[in-house]
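Subject: mismatched residue count in predicted assembly?

I count 701 residues in my input, but I want to confirm that the predicted structure covers every chain. Input:
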Amino acid sequence: MNWSLFFGELVSGLTLGSIYALIALGYTMVYGILKLLNFAHGDVYMVGAFVGFFVLQWLGGALSPAVTGWLVVAIMFVVGMLACGLLGVGIERFAYRPLRNAPRIAPLISALGVSIFLQNSALLLWGPQFRSYDTFDLVGVKSYHIGNNFFISNLQILTIAVSIGLTIVLALVVSRTRTGKAMRATSFDRDAAEMMGISIDRVISFTFFLGSALAAAGGIMFGLVFGQIFSLMGFTAGLKGFTAAVVGGIGSIPGAVLGGFLIGLTEAFATGYLPGGSVYANLYVFALLIGMFLIRPSGLLGSPVIQKV
Amino acid sequence: MKKLVVAASLAALMAVLATAAWGSTRGSNKVAAPANAGSQLVKCGKTRSIGLMAPFTGPAASIGINQVHWANFYKNSYNRTHKTKIKFVNEDTMLGSANGTAEAVKGAQALGSNSAVLGAVGPAGSNEVKATTGALKGAGLGFVSGSATNTQITLDGTRTGYFFRTVPPDSSQSKSVSAYITGKLKLKNVYIVDDQEAYSTGLADEVQAQLKAKGVTVGRDGVSQQQSDFTAIINKIPRSAQLVYLPWQLPPKGQAFGQQMKGLGRGSTKLMGSDGLFDPLFSKLGSNVYDSFFPVNPSDKRVAAFKKIHKGTELFGAPSYVATQVVAGAIDRACKNGTASRAEVRAQLKKTNIPASTSLLGLPVQFNKNGDMVKKPFGIYHSVKGVFVRVA
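Triage response: the counts match. Full output below for your records.
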């Protein structure tokens, strides 16, 4: 057994899975409340990565930041998450709210339209070229090793820790606050929640804010760990985040996180161990999705929906 | 039982998909040109149009723009010194973008249907050369690339008489690379990661075979050109590997690979790129970086003049200067009687003869029957303080 390879792929998978988990959370929350597959979510993640990049430039760039590197990273997260949170609220207000009582196919098409709109706007505004976060110059990447086999970098630790931290905060918001209670009530029965005096519009806007902010955090983490961002990065990442949400059980917050880690680990271990895995890792990821649909259609932690007749 | 059937179906599906994916990377596309392709005569006039296919935007824009700058550098000097003028009809191929070679094919079709265009410079990538052959050959256009190095694209007979290049083929590059790795660096353990494109796999195959023949232990893997996360594949590279060879086309990807190597504590492993990574994005990774590159005469006065205008040191596009010179020269000769056809321009391309004394490459530019230059050496470079310096 090559333990160095095993631990390496484990850390890579958890790092990648952390990012997918943050994207999946947005998908799952919106689906939980609105029963809408928000296909523009991957592109919000891309916008988040770009906002982080522009904040970095605004603060002097990686080579000569106006403040210390880690403070720059913190500001990138705060501004990126706020900006994308507001973008999410705007998308919901203008693209989905007018269609709330329309047949379910209408908001789905609208979501695809928003996705293409964001992608092409990014291409128009920022061009198709890659942008580098230059993380080495910004914070100095260090790798730690335990024995001869286990290596992990400070950015991988940061990514996994931030992802777990944000998930815990989200779980606390949903389970311990009045707004969270309103979100759960709306998810359970929207009409009944409205009759109890809950402002459905406000709850839905807040859900979009949270989901989009988490996607932005994922985009910035991607830029920090993997170095580069580009205008079309949201498509595949969004698809993987959606897959993670479905594998975990769409509508379930712990399921989204579990699905994210599962997809990340599948990708990393497929690359490390399976034939052609480094090139065709996505083949294995989406085979997992198909397998999950066939064996457990409601996902790992999802509950089957009972249809009333 | 039901789960067993599901699992068996999934395994079968994956096998079919993997076979299809494998098969899609094999095979060739033979393209026949109409008998009268490009025989229509057009008036040459005072201004002659040349198609310029390059990645103006997209992941390879950093090298593409450099090619465009060099091509324009030739155009401007030509227009200053000649009574006739040349102008470019630009087509952005977006090399390396998610659309694959679709943009290059669209551009080639546009050039083919523009009767004013008598010849073309580009495209940059070998895959693009393969993809655009049908459109360009069908329209009778001769085309000269300043960077497509895949060995087979001149040997497979598909585009003979239509395609020419001002860079040596990978068979030459692979010899220089393997000789440097074994002769100068004296390495015994090398890992090759290709990017699944025709250029990359072709070069990787050749370097792998030559290193193995010299007794070097060679590991091999591939990545997708769309990939940005290389950590999982870096984990697979044995720590005993002394050098990782990356025959890639996209400098930002090479930069990301090198940064992620450092992030995983592998910063001391040597990296060697091919001509596609001859870019500051790659050289700035550190002194562990090497690269192979086309022949260019760095002491030529035109190199200094170019650097003065563009404030840069990049020479990647220099062969595109020569490609433009070749096409413009062929059009001039074909236009001697005031009219020319694309077929006549192709015939003149074959007769190109730029002596070493006036060649930016520092060697004569003449083509053999396949469209390759007769003389074709490759240089090896080492990154010193972030800049590539020739070492062999």
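The longest strand of chain A covers residues 143-146. Marking this ticket as 'not a bug'.
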